[in-house]
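User: Please run a holo structure prediction.
Assistant: Happy to. Please share the sequence and the ligand.
User: Here you go; the ligand is D-xylulose.
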Amino acid sequence: MSDGPLYLGFDLSTQQLKAIVVQSDLNVVADAKVDFDQDFSSKYNVKKGVLVNEDEGEVFAPVAMWLESLDLVLQRLQEKKTPLNRIRGISGSCQQHGSVYWGRRAESLLGGLKSDKPLVDQLKEAFSHPYAPNWQDHSTQQECDQFDVKLGSAERLAEVTGSAAHHRFTGTQIMRLRRKLPDMYANTSRISLASSFLASLFLGAVAPMDISDVCGMNLWDIAGNDWSQPLLELTAGKDGVPDLRSKLGEVRLDGGGSMGRISSYFTSRYNFNPDCEVAPFTGDNPATILALPLRPLDAIVSLGTSTTFLMSTPVYKPDPSYHFFNHPTTPGQYMFMLCYKNGGLAREKVRDALPKPEGDGASDPWATFNKHALATPPLDVRSDSDRAKLGLYFYLPEIVPNIRAGTWRYTCDAATGGALREEPGWPAETDARTIVESQALSMRLRSQKLVRPPDGADQLPAQPRRIYLVGGGSHNPAIARIVGDVLGGADGVYKLDVGGNACALGGAYKAVWAFERAEGETFDELIGKRWKEEGAIQKVDDGYRDGVFQKYGNVLAAFEEMEERILKVAKNT
Ligand code: XUL
């Protein structure tokens, strides 16, 4: 370990709270985690980190559990002899859209924390609502319908706020809670996102929201750089706008710098240095693009429980089916995001419909799936007369597009994409390739307006430059190959090998940049100089393959048409 300053990054995700400590040269020196189910399921009854009220589609987490987790994770860092007194700055990454409701006593309780009792005991009275709605919540269809029409159309809402209305977006959640729990809403002094909530604990005062994470609310006017007056009116009623503005507070426009010194609770209880400062925390997806110096035209495909596709881009071309956020560190840049609910779990369903692997491959649950996925040719077209196979595999109601749960199988002419028709079915073995193709085709369809031929490779079709895979599915070679076949990647497909820590690392790197940046130095400039490719990434596929890439291009319009036809009969309501 060097003797220079250290930086602490958090990741408050749905199922865990992770902490990671890095040096100025970005080397990791310590980490610790709390797993909500393992550490707290008997106390808080959570499953996969959340509580569910199926009748109303509510998914939420106990705020007290998060408080206990923060003390526990810091205790675990201490047990590992982490020199917390050398930490100069803290930042973090938190699940997006989740909101925390502070009561009237919040500021005084936060400001008066004593080190002899845990946070959970001292902040009991700090909240007007004991739960934080989670991004998987889908209780807000009624509110979404109103958001989508308030500015004229879903397209216009996406233009202004970066996204059409989504169940999980915080504006719709606030509007519903105000309707359902009017007293709670009236007693709320401030509303935090999960990211500003965690930062608040360290600051000992309610922290402002972050300029990137605020775009996950359907309330922030991105071009106007302010709350949208008509959307605040919709959420809070005409007379309630000033009150809602004060609940939401000012948004911090700078993703770096210091929001203030660490609260004495942490200096006394965990021996943090009183000079340690707190930088803005951001959402987990914005933090993922900070886990490496991502260049424009590079894409990250995060293959977790859900699947996300992320790009950093100077181009702002919003559309109701995807999301734009302000870039977490670089004004004038944006983050483009697609977020699918049917990711890893959907692939597992297809896998589990196949015979269990036996013999040599028995230890790899994906062996049979991968064998079939790789043995099946692109779109299962084996001869010129074969039709291309396309499917949708939504075991959960999907976000992109907004289709109810179900599976659909179609074919079309492989050369033209014409003559699309639904099929009764095909062998389960074929589904292994088709589901991965389907997930990648959806990403290609929606990102095609943002890509261009990579610099110096004008002869190539428009596509991402590099594709970085992260998350559980990134270890699967068949998935890497098919993602490369469909999406291309002129410079290849890489696995970002950071052991599931991309968001926490992004948070820690953000802290390094926040406190060490020179005047005007961007995140990419600073991190680009210090980041070492070796050990962090590994090339797992060549990416673009001439001839194969075009086969998928031929059926892209048919894929879109298939979605449109299914939307007509199976839209989520
Ligand atoms: C993004 C989203 C999820 C959560 C996961 O819009 O809802 O990716 O951020 O924590």
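The pocket of D-xylulose is lined by residues 13-14, 95-97, 135, 168, 216, 283-285, 306, 308, 339 (CB under 6 Å).
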